[in-house]
Amino acid sequence: MAGTRNYRSIGEVLVSVKTEFPDITISKIRFLEAEGLIEPERTPSGYRKFYSRDVDMLKSILRMQRDEYLPLKVIKERLLQQAAEDEAAAADGDGGEAAAGRAEAAAASRAAASEEIADAPTGLQMSLEEMAAATGVDRDRIKELESFGIVSSHGPENARYYDGDDYIVLSIVKDFFRYGVEPRHLTMYKHFEEREASFFEQIVAPMMRQKNPDARRAAADTLAELTVTSRKFKQALLRTNIRSTLSA
Q1: DSSP code of 97?
Q2: How sure is the predictor about 244, in pLDDT bands with cuts at 50, 70 and 90?
Q3: Sign of CA dihedral 93, 94, 96, 97
Q4: If you classify domain 10-118 with CATH, what class do you get?
Q5: What residues contact residue 143 under an 8 Å CB cut-off, 6+ apart?
Q6: pLDDT digit string, tens, across residues 64-108
Q7: Any idea where the domains of the chain sit in the sequence?
Q8: What Rg, from alpha-carbon coordinates, does the chain have?
Q9: Does residue 69 contact residue 169 with C-beta atoms inside 8 Å?
Q10: pLDDT score of 116 more than 70
Q11: CA-to-CA distance for 235 and 81, rounded, in angstroms?
């Protein structure tokens, strides 16, 4: 039967994608299903049936998480929009300029969505186990990061949870771990960002002290512009230092 059926079990899917996504686990696949991002069929006895389209969908989701650090909410919106576009194309059967227009609009939408990664998904509350499954960072590593203040659990002692900011941080720092970086090494980023945040607060403090809503909006815009400028400046300095290291 295994040689003739045209679908895979969840274990077979795990093996097939593990080369490209070493951090994938069965728990994470189940979590993505629970969140409504993948919908494998079930056998009469309840086992999952992953067809080629399901595996392709899973890979697309994992790539968006890994390469673009997109939160699940944005990924789900993107998938729904793509499905709607495909359905519309199938319904009217048109091509040419209309298809090109849809492709262009989809590209613009994806570009806009990628800009949202700086904003953590609101209202997200995950237990330690859920966060580990969603990000591929194991429980012990998350607790170690928490001991260094890189992430922080919230809520009462008997119902601790991690939020959207923690999700974004974990999605990023797990790439460091592939190079042997330890949580303690990341504290330099935390210390620098704390000083930078304090510096930016001093710049916008006069505007924040005003009761005028326009002044507060101006403060928010200023912070956004400072963040972009800071990122560009750090990238330029890093490039200069790396160039010096490679030419030494």
Answers
A1: H
A2: confident
A3: negative
A4: mainly alpha
A5: 128
A6: 888 877 778 888 888 888 888 777 777 766 555 555 555 555 555
A7: 10-118, 128-181, 185-248
A8: 22
A9: no
A10: no
A11: 33
Q: What's the length of the chain?
A: 248
The DSSP output letter for 120 is P
The two structure tokens encoding residue 64: 């968006």
CA 205 → CA 192, 212, 215, distances in Å? 20, 13, 11
Give the number of other CB atoms < 10 A from CB of residue 36: 11
For residue 20, give both structure tokens. Answer: 């490209």
The pTM score is: 0.54
Contacts (Cβ under 8 Å, ≥6 apart) of 39: 33, 54
**3-state SS class at 155:** coil
DSSP class of 185: G
Question: Is the torsion defined by CA of 157, 33, 172, 199 positive or negative?
Answer: negative
Instruction: Identify the residue whose tokens are 């200023």.
Output: 222
Closest CA to 119 of 62, 73, 182: 73
DSSP 27-64: HHHHHHHHTTS---EE-TTS-EEB-HHHHHHHHHHHHH
Average pLDDT for 6-25: 89
- Token pair recorded at residue 212: 């005028």
